[in-house]
Design a protein that fits this description.
- This protein is of the alpha+beta class and 617 residues long.
- It folds into five domains: 41 residues; 170 residues, Immunoglobulin-like (Sandwich), CATH 2.60.40; 82 residues, no CATH class; 204 residues, Neutral Protease Domain 2 (Neutral Protease, domain 2, Orthogonal Bundle), CATH 1.10.390.10; 75 residues, PDZ domain (Pdz3 Domain, Roll), CATH 2.30.42.10.
- It is 32% helix and 24% strand.
- A seven-stranded mixed β-sheet has the order 4-7-2-1-10-13-12.
- A hairpin with a 4-residue loop joins strand 12 and strand 13.
- Helix 4 packs across helix 7, helix 8 crosses helix 11 and helix 12 packs across helix 13.
- It is globular, with a radius of gyration of 30 Å.
Amino acid sequence: MKNCSFVLITYFIYQQMNKIQFIFILSLSLLVSCKVSLVKSQTPSYNLNYELAMSEPYTHYFEVKLHLKNINQIAELKGKSSVLVKMPVWTPGSYLVREFSKNVIDFEVSNNLNSKKIDKNTWEIALNGANELTLTYKVYAYEMSVRTSFLDDSHGYVNGASVFMFFPDLSKSPSLLEINPYSDWGTISTALKPITENVFLVDNYDTLVDSPIEIGNHEVLEFSSMGIPHKVAMYSMKPLDYDKAKIIQDFERMTRAATSVIGENPLDHYLFINHHLPNIGGGLEHLYSSTCQTSPETYQSQKSYIGFFGTLAHEYFHLWNVKRIRPEALGPFDYDRENYTNMLWVAEGFTSYYEEIILKRAGMIDEADVLNAWASGINSIENQPGNKIQAVTESSWDAWIKYYRPNENSVNTTVSYYSKGGVLAGLLNLEILHNTNGNKSLDDVMRLLWNKYYKELKRGYSDEEFQKACEEVAGESLDSFFTNYIWDTKAPDYSKYFNYAGINLINENTNSNTAFLGLVASGTTVNRVLANGSAYNSGINVGDVIISADDKPISGLGDLSSGKNVGDELKITVLRSGVQKDLKMKLNADTRLRYKLEKMDKLTKEQEKIYNFLMNK
């Protein structure tokens, strides 16, 4: 019947035009038909397929379908009467259980198959002999961060773990993802390999989680670095004012500089997704891409521009450190629960340290910028009371309950594995350089880990293996370094380490006679109290509203210590839970460290060699 209709239509068209027109139209039709058939024939067939739609983006709901077919032929499912489907509780790179299943609604299964939720993130589907099924659900996405997903009438952003469910039995199996954008949108940016314009190959579930997606009408910049194609998806609600030629040049320089650490780049493509909105920031690494967030005004000042490129360098360097060189706990991932490691101080801290190294090698910052960044890192941790309480390994292990869940007392009990890890990376680099007469460095440690654990053994490293790698490069035992600074909270002898490179460490707050309150407030409401400071020892609490000092009303914190000396005692009146209280405060000296780093006037040959290596000279 279909063939007869085609003949009649063809004959009718022939009667309406001359022979040449008919041949042209017929040839064009056959060409289009062949192209469609060719595309279909090139599209691989898999037992599992995903569909993503967003028909009403203003509702903030992504619509998801999972098609599972040939169930009776899938070895992992043969003979099973039911199948489990799960939503991850966290996303790799961000160590907090976020309970993504809380955003799921309208969970339904085709063919009248019964399903039930058996725990917070798991559904069980009774197969009843069915050979295929289609699972549909919606995900509410309205949290604009690099760790979550977002959808509104301007764009859609997908972080895979927060949107896509998975069948545990098939988590290692390949699949396809079909993305159907909102009708007004024309651009899809993802590191997934395209089959057609909107269909992508998914090697396994880890790949799907590790490939964020930007959907909308954003601008896409393109450049080649070391022969590797790179793309930059630039999303913003307002027009961005930047020099395209300059930013592309800086991207190329930064990616080359990052590659210089390991000496080889494993990529065949890479995607930067950059979001530009007020009051956002941060970044998250992925295997072939990253997402970074910043203000639309970032490109209007050199300081903010370099700051953003520091974030970009950080996330790009993660393609080696974390995504391929990794602690053994960070892959394969368990998406149901916390994945613990003591080594986030290396995974994140070393990456933080290399931010300045990469930008300096790229020629984007100078020696003074590097020294200022290092001094700032030391000051940030040494002036935090929690640095004396929490070892950097403990900080790594407890990231799940502390780092991502800070409270008003966190400054007194915790330290950042980013900041302290970065400082320790610098000291370890100096120790290795000194012990090898400037011939080996932290770069060599990273290369050893790369070659041995990623390329040769194809696994992560243990705590002990990491220390052994550092010792192999340093040519000496580093037990004292690791025991005191890594597993304990002893303060390093910073001057000793920086002296190796001919750098003076100067405390600009030596012998201070300035009174220091030791609190942070909004107006006169106390937000934070530093342990063992004047306010802490006087009994001032977070939430107190300071009314007066020595019975004189105050308008701000400056009024408390103005004209006062170290050792003076004040009568402080606060309002606490609606009740007025009088407290006595003895003013302590400001003992905070204010380090700066300066190159010495005269350096030995060894110091000069180490300094020049650090500064890429």
